[in-house]
Write a structure and sequence with these properties.
Layout lengths: L12 H20 L12 H9 L10 H12 L12 E2 L8 H13 L10 H17 L7 E5 L2 H20 L4 H4 L8 E6 L5 H8 L7 E4 L9 H13 L3 E8 L11 H10 L3 E6 L22 E5 L11 E5 L18 H5 L18 H34 L5 E3 L7 E6 L3 H13 L3 E7 L2 E7 L7 H12 L3
Parallel strand pairs: 1-11, 3-4, 3-5, 5-6, 6-7
Antiparallel strand pairs: 2-8, 7-8, 9-10, 10-12, 11-12
């Protein structure tokens, strides 16, 4: 059988053997490309662009898999980012556990979709039990539920839509789902930290409120929402005729890993009948650690965003939204005769499309199941403790050194710092390290350019941290 006649997987032994060979050859190529702890080849972007632009994307006649893999091995694999490298630490972009990488193969081969039960029977049931366990893990009761999404932005958007619909239904006696937006719509306001994720501004745009209706609350020295100032701002808005409907607690800000006080924000939310959402895309993994108490009382929130491609160390992308009251998910429910017939659901077939913005969804809950079963609570505790303790080790190492400026004391695994010699030097340090195969982050704190270590790799050692500190000091 010629290669161009093999279309899709089947029970045919020859086709199964062809897939086995393709996977083995691909894996060999990938493993052969891993020959150092550099996370990046260091190639200049213009040189890399010339290499990539030389690839003929759609030839008139296909060249076959073997030749294609050879070209990818030569021109692409050497310059892909090695997220598993301990030299990679700029973003909330984690290495992936080995068992989770293996699970991606299962997900891709079977290609189940999580919209209707008949497109993923076992996958649907797996999402249900994983969501149930997550609700239990974060302290939610029997009335809770959740759904997997494409990422933290998708989870946060879902929460914003739910909060809007709930407020309009209960406070304005208006059904947005059926009637569209109420006359008072432009008075609705969202409140979030001034250093929260930009997905809330995006969500406000998408639902028709716009950026101006997102109020960015001031933060304190620990980069947490200043709840006294927040209460005053919301009180003034309410008295001026605005309609506060959502307040967001960030459980691990992108730059600083800072954690907002959920209990105090809940008190503000209750006073104005607001929806409280916890964006725990970053910090949710710490629920598995010995430091889980740092997260606060997350079970007080109406919903929680959980990202598994951050501290949980799973491949991109994998996120979910869990809700305290499953009825809030009903805003996404809509029946179609070809997809999620009501009579099927009455007979016990669960069609998850009624909980999600997306229709087609990957069976991402499977990789959560496989990782959780493989590692267990103790395995995850060990890994996440290590990354949190690595951040503390690095912070302690530089905080009293007069050469360094340090940002807030880390609560999770991010440390913001700078060399005390001006913004331009710190920018040059980051670029110089990247050219040598080490990538660290850059941000701004108190109007200063700062560097950042986002330490999500449990394989990182104190010795490697010491080497990086020494290398950074050499640029002074």
């Amino acid at each position: 059988m010629r290669e161009n006649e093999i279309y899709v997987l089947s029970s045919n032994p020859e086709i199964k053997e062809t897939l086995r060979s393709m996977i083995i050859n691909t894996l060999d190529a990938v493993l052969s490309s891993i020959d150092s702890d550099r996370c990046y080849s260091g190639i200049d972007p213009n040189d890399l662009r010339r290499i990539i632009n030389s690839i003929e994307v759609l030839p008139e006649n296909g060249i076959g898999f073997d030749k294609t893999l050879k070209r990818v091995e030569e021109d692409v694999l050497p310059h892909l980012l090695s997220t598993w490298s301990t030299s990679y630490m700029p973003h909330l972009h984690s290495p992936a556990l080995l068992e989770a990488i293996a699970s991606e193969l299962i997900i891709a081969i079977f290609n189940d979709s999580l919209d209707s039960w008949d497109q993923g029977p076992a996958a649907t049931e797996i999402e249900l039990i994983v969501i149930k366990k997550l609700c239990e893990l974060f302290g939610y009761g029997e009335d809770s539920d959740g759904v997997f999404t494409s990422g933290g932005s998708g989870s946060n958007l879902s929460a914003v839509i739910q909060a809007r619909d709930k407020f309009c239904n209960e406070q304005l006696n208006w059904d947005v789902k059926k009637k569209g937006l109420p006359a008072e719509y432009k008075k609705l306001r969202i409140y979030t930290s001034s250093i929260s994720h930009f997905s809330f501004d995006k969500a406000s745009h998408i639902i028709g409120l716009g950026y101006d209706n997102v109020v960015h609350l001031p933060v304190n020295e620990k980069c947490q929402i200043d709840t006294l100032k927040a209460a005053e701002i919301i009180k003034n808005d309410y008295e001026d005729g605005y309609l506060p409907f959502l307040i967001v607690a960030t459980i691990g800000t992108t730059d600083f890993g800072s954690i907002d006080n959920v209990k105090e924000l809940k008190q503000i939310a209750d006073k104005y009948n607001m929806y409280l959402h916890c964006d725990a895309a970053y910090g949710s993994g710490a629920i598995m650690s010995s430091y889980s108490s740092r997260l606060g009382e997350l079970s007080l929130a109406d919903s929680i965003t959980i990202d598994f491609h951050k501290m949980f160390l799973l491949p991109i992308s994998c996120s979910c939204l869990i809700v305290k009251n499953k009825k809030t998910l009903e805003c996404f429910e809509l029946h179609a005769d070809y997809l999620n017939r009501e009579e099927d659901e009455e007979d016990g077939y669960v069609n998850l499309v009624g909980k999600a913005i997306q229709t087609t969804r990957r069976a991402d809950a499977l990789k959560v199941l496989i990782a959780f079963m493989t590692r267990g609570r103790d395995g995850y505790r060990s890994m996440i403790d290590r990354v949190i303790e690595n951040a503390q080790y690095f912070y302690n190492k530089i905080k009293d050194d007069p050469l360094f400026i340090t940002g807030p004391k880390p609560e999770l695994s991010s440390v913001v710092f700078a060399i005390n010699k001006g913004d331009e030097l710190n920018k040059r340090i980051r670029r110089a390290l990247m050219s040598k195969g080490t990538i660290i982050g850059q941000t701004v704190w108190k109007e200063k350019v700062m560097l950042k270590f986002t330490l999500l790799n449990p394989a990182l050692t104190h010795e490697k941290i010491d080497e990086l500190v020494k290398a950074i000091k050499e640029y002074k």
